[in-house]
Structure to design on (104 residues):
């Protein structure tokens, strides 16, 4: 798996884990006194968050991102659905190019 595909996968997983944490685990913790969800999903989300941030730095040159786009992609990590948008509009178009298109 190339590094851009890894960023795509981590971007989607990070956003999904963040939504799961916010919309399921935290309400269970505070409304039903069931903190186990946060205990499980929280660390998973933390690892995915760190992987996303690291992969943004590793792939920014390969994707041809400017400093501004890189900063916006990093800010996206702290917004619940923004990594979905980063993957859809900034990572996927670059990652879906065929090798012949990249050489042209």
């Amino acid at each position: 798996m190339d590094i851009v595909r890894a960023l795509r996968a981590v971007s989607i997983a990070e956003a999904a884990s963040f939504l799961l944490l916010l919309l399921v685990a935290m309400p269970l913790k505070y409304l039903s006194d069931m903190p186990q969800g946060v205990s499980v999903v929280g660390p998973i989300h933390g690892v995915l968050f760190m992987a996303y941030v690291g992969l943004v730095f590793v792939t920014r040159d390969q994707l041809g991102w400017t400093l501004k786009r890189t900063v916006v992609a990093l800010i996206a990590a702290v917004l619940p659905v923004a990594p979905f948008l980063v993957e859809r509009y900034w990572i996927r178009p670059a990652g879906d190019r065929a090798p012949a298109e990249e050489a042209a």
